[in-house]
């Protein structure tokens, strides 16, 4: 059987047929192969390369889930959604550096504890499904050989996904499905895109979906009900990248997911491969041949039986900080954000009483990323922001930087209320898989391991990119962010390095009095022109901040370029200058330009075009900053014409933007 390469971001990785499933975990770097004209007769593509970690210049997280562009005269909002053209290469690129295959994948992730079948039980299930499936589905017992065989009627996309779902459901239902932690059903979705408020229109070929009253009453599945995604290989496709995109959609729809299981099935023979995606990358199984029990049919039956029985942690859910014992069994899986979830608080917290996550405010896309989720919640009667994210094990805890800032009386920064650290990927999500893997994989997970953390902050404001903020409120929030940034640096000795509209909040209630050094006066009274000054906002998010003088601060170079892509300073973006205070001030300028342009003011003459439409389209003036490469983004950050795209009410910021730009580049000695 010929090998078939999988091309990802300009690299090709060849998949080699696996003749034996014995042996240890493997991760083999394979030389580039010749591209075949057809993959019809090839085995399933598999990424066997695991490269030494290098900074990923862009990730899928850099393309936001949606961006409100135009709230028209009817009041309805038009939104930009992420397209496959832009997202798929980024997903593939971030996974190429973080993907490997394991010869013991079933034992590591599926055939564990009480939900594993032994061989006699697998044969019992095969006998049961032979009787329950119609003859056309071709699962048969051969008395002369004592073997079971399994051959689908066809491997075409029109027939195979439905056949696979019938087979998987027959396995699930053959032996007491009531043991499952949650009722679920395999469904063919190749013709129906699952729906989701934050999801794109992608169609997995088949899924394992929670089967409850809500899903049974709807003909269209939802992304927040999906437990497993499946892709049937088709001619000319890149099934691994496609499967990864489905996994990303599950992460987006289900904020408490720690891992997502996927299956790729072959279009040329009885082969399939399991994949498991988490925040450190993806682990794949070897290729399984399920045509008979003399091959790996029993293993596949055992795996498909086990998958619906996995408990929440085994299925890839974080549950340790969430209170679910008051819920009915079918709701014990924290699938979505449709309910106010109750939180467990550590005994060390100063707050007592019920803690609730009331409303999801922000969710970051991507796979190999922090996967940040932010809720507005209440803790002890106080309104708070609750942030979950996967912190790199090579980074200092975010809470330690908040504590350092507080010890130096930094102002204009959100206040840390409580923090906790939960599972990490190597030990808990991968079940110590890395401890027995190859040296290459072991080095990778040690440098790419992540810890799930929760921090609780106050105040809980609104990002200055919020659609309903007035120009005055935006100005007040931006001013508070600037004060916080300066105090963080000069008082706290901390450089932020990730200034964006999402990391600056506005609050209706003023927070703290401004330092007098900001106002240029003495520190004896907080007075400007006879008026007491307070901050209506704060700077947030210290995930990428560094303490000046620390080991990380001294070694910070282009290798760890940080920031939110559209707002990164040009010198950092282009030639990797070491991140400095001045670069953050440049990011503040791009934040100002952004919030002055979005959401786009409705155009009374949408058909009318001007000379600037090719550079700054009226419907999406700064889309280049999101979708294009570094060189194009830098070239697009020319200035004067963009001011003509400021929305109504924000014209007064033009002079501020001009002065800001002149000041920044005069400091660089390059003139205005």
From TrEMBL:
SUPFAM superfamilies given in the database record: Protein kinase-like (PK-like)
Region (Disordered): 20-40
Domain of life: Eukaryota
Domain Fungal-type protein kinase: 204-596
Gene3D superfamilies: Transferase(Phosphotransferase) domain 1 (1.10.510.10)
Biased composition (Low complexity): 20-29
Signal peptide as annotated in the record: none
Pfam families: Pkinase_fungal
PANTHER family, A to Z: FUNK1 11, FUNK1 6
Protein name as it appears in the record: Fungal-type protein kinase domain-containing protein
């Amino acid at each position: 059987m010929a090998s078939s390469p999988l091309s990802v971001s300009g690299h090709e990785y060849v998949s080699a047929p696996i003749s034996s499933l014995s042996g240890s975990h493997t991760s083999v770097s394979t030389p580039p192969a010749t591209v075949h004209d057809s993959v019809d007769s090839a085995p399933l593509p598999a990424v066997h390369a695991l490269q030494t970690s290098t900074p990923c210049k862009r990730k899928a997280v850099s393309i936001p889930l949606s961006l409100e562009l135009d709230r028209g005269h009817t009041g309805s909002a038009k939104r930009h959604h992420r397209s496959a053209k832009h997202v798929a290469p980024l997903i593939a690129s971030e996974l190429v550096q973080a993907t490997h295959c394991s010869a013991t994948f079933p034992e590591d992730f599926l055939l564990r504890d009480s939900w594993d079948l032994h061989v006699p039980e697998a044969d019992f299930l095969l006998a049961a499904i032979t009787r329950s499936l119609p003859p056309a589905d071709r699962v048969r017992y051969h008395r002369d050989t004592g073997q079971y065989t399994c051959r689908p009627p066809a491997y075409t996309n029109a027939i195979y996904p439905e056949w696979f779902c019938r087979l998987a459901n027959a396995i699930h239902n053959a032996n007491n499905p009531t043991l499952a932690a949650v009722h679920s059903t395999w469904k063919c979705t190749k013709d129906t895109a699952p729906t989701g408020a934050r999801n794109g229109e992608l169609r997995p070929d088949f899924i394992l979906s929670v089967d409850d009253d809500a899903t049974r009453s709807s003909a269209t599945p939802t992304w927040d009900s999906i437990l497993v995604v499946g892709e049937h290989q088709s001619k000319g496709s890149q099934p691994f990248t496609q499967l990864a995109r489905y996994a990303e959609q599950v992460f987006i729809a289900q904020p408490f997911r720690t891992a997502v299981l996927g299956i790729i099935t072959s279009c040329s023979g009885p082969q399939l491969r399991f994949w498991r995606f988490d925040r450190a990358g993806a682990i794949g199984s070897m290729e399984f041949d399920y045509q008979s029990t003399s091959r790996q049919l029993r293993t596949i039956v055992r795996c498909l039986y086990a998958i619906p029985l996995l408990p929440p942690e085994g299925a890839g859910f974080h549950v340790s900080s969430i209170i679910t014992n008051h819920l009915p069994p079918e709701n014990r899986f924290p699938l979505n954000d449709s309910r106010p979830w109750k939180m467990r608080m550590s005994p060390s917290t100063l707050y007592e009483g019920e803690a609730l996550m009331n409303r999801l405010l922000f969710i970051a896309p991507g796979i190999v990323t922090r996967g940040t989720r932010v809720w507005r919640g209440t803790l002890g009667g106080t309104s708070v922001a609750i942030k979950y994210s996967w912190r790199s094990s090579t980074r200092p805890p975010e809470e330690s930087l908040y504590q350092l800032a507080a010890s130096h009386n930094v102002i204009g920064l959100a206040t840390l209320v409580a923090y906790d650290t939960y599972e990490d990927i190597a030990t808990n999500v991968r079940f110590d898989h890395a401890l027995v893997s190859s040296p290459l994989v072991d080095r990778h997970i040690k440098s790419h391991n992540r810890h799930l953390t929760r921090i609780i902050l106050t105040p809980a404001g609104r990002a200055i990119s919020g659609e309903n903020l007035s120009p005055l409120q935006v100005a007040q929030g931006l001013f508070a962010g600037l004060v916080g940034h300066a105090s963080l640096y000069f008082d706290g000795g901390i450089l932020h390095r990730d200034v964006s509209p999402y990391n600056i909040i506005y609050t209706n209630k003023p927070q703290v009095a401004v330092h007098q050094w900001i106002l240029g006066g003495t520190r004896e009274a907080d007075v400007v022109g006879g008026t007491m000054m307070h901050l209506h906002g704060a700077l947030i998010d210290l995930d990428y901040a560094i303490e000046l003088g620390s080991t990380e601060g001294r070694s910070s170079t282009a290798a760890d370029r940080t920031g939110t892509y559209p707002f990164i300073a040009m010198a950092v973006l282009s030639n990797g200058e070491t991140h400095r205070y001045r670069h953050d001030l440049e990011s503040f300028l791009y934040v100002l330009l952004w919030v002055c342009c979005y959401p786009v003011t409705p155009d009374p003459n949408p058909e009318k075009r001007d000379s600037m439409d090719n550079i700054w389209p009226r419907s999406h003036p700064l889309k280049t900053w999101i979708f294009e490469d570094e060189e194009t983004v830098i070239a697009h950050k020319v200035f004067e014409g963009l001011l003509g795209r400021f929305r109504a009410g924000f014209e007064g910021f033009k002079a501020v933007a001009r002065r800001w730009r002149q000041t920044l580049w005069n400091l660089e000695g390059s003139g205005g």
